[in-house]
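Researcher: Here's a chain I'd like modeled. Treat it as a single chain, no partners, no ligands.
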Amino acid sequence: MKLLYILLFVLFAGLIIKSFYTHYISKTKRYFAFDDSRYREEDDFLKIHALNIGNLERIFLYLMLVTYLAALAVFIFTDHPAAIWILATVLAWQFVLSLFIDLKLYSAFHDKGHLFMVFIWLILIVVLYFGLSRFDIYA
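Model: Modeled as a single isolated chain. Structure tokens:
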């Protein structure tokens, strides 16, 4: 079972590394939280830029990193099942970020698809923690 938990930590580290790469290094993609290639018009680019999504991503990126490091510390030093709950919060932060971004994009473009996604993100957050509560987590 420990091997599965270690694999989870490796996968989440990959998620965080990919997000850092996209946010700070990538020349082709500006945002890691949504697909910006959908918006090609210069007017769309200006609207997205005005939403300050980059700053919001940066805040959540560091929240994800700190939460991940806290989960890793709990897992290594205490071997407590709470580490998995804390690790799940990294994914929850990603969902919350996506929720906020879809709200911002809806306010700028009035695309009901973004509003629909807000409800999907809320459902996924509930399912994440409800699903996790259904499993027995052993140290």
